[in-house]
Amino acid sequence: MQVPSFFHSLYTKLLSEKTKAKGEGWILGIAIGSFIIHLILIFLADLGFYDVESELFENPISAIYTPFSFILVYEVYLLVYFLPKSFTTYIGKQYEIISLIIIRRLFKDLATLELSSDWFQIKDDLQFTYDLLTSVALFFLLLLFYKNSKKQETEGVKTAPSEELKAFIQFKKLTATILVPILLGIALYTLGSWSTYILFPEGSLGTSFKNINAIFFDEFFMILIVVDVILLLASFYYTDQFHKVMRNSGFIVSTILIRLSFSVEGLMNNFLILAAICFGLVIMVIHNQYEKAYQNEKK
Which residue, 144, 127, 117, 184, is CA-closest to 282? Predict the structure, then answer.
């Protein structure tokens, strides 16, 4: 598949190494600036200059939530950036994003902790405990996932890419180029909708943002499921190896489990996230064993 020159030029502008470096600098500046602005708004709300019904404006610790949100946006960009380059890194970025969402949730919940002897009877404190343990487990699972990902790369036999594989890479570049404006549009829309809801709740036409942690990412992972399915179907043009198909299909199941986690709360939310990454890790480990046996047969 030959990518049209227009998309090739757009891909170079949106997803080049130079653009990634510039984006990193911009996001860092925006994250620092947003943190300072959020602190000022909390201070003004505390003085009674305005009244906002949101737990994000009740405690200075909550201000950490804002820069983390922009860091997550950059992680989304990196996910799209790595899509044409490395499928396992692309999946790993999905896992990094959900891990950072848990960390961001910890910062929000820190502001509402009730330190008492009834810790395990208080719902919010119990959820904080779940998130604390989940974040550590996710950090460790990501380490294992990337180790197995690198193991696959080092043990694989280096061969020149076939014409089918080159065409598949071009298709992934086209997909990544289309994804950038779509995700940017969704991010701006959800940010505008949430801001309107916070500032003018009576005029929000019934819009609800009960689960603030799911804003944007609910839709984001839904899009990823569609993209993963499209990539799975397109991959049949360059390979029909069973272990490759199983790996790609397993990663789709993993993404679906992450998407489902946004629809539930409490311990089930944490369980689905851990199950998703554990499933992806197991799929990767088994795939590597298949790949090793396959390479040995070729030798």
Answer: 144
- Per-residue pLDDT reduced to its tens digit, 80-101: 999 988 888 899 999 999 999 9
Cα–Cα distance between 275 and 290 in angstroms, integer? 22
The three-class DSSP label of residue 208 is coil
pTM reported for the whole predicted model: 0.84
C-alpha radius of gyration, the chain, whole number: 21
Separation CA 289–CA 254 (nearest Å): 20
Considering only the C-alpha atoms of the chain, give the largest distance between any 2 of them, rounded to a whole number of Å.
74
**Residues, the chain, total?**
299
**Nearest of 272, 277, 215 to residue 65 by alpha carbon:** 215
Q: Regarding predicted confidence, which is higher, 71 or 162?
A: 71
CB 202 within 8 A of CB 90: no
Per the listing, tokens 């799975």 go with 232
Q: Is the pLDDT at 231 greater than 80, yes or no?
A: yes
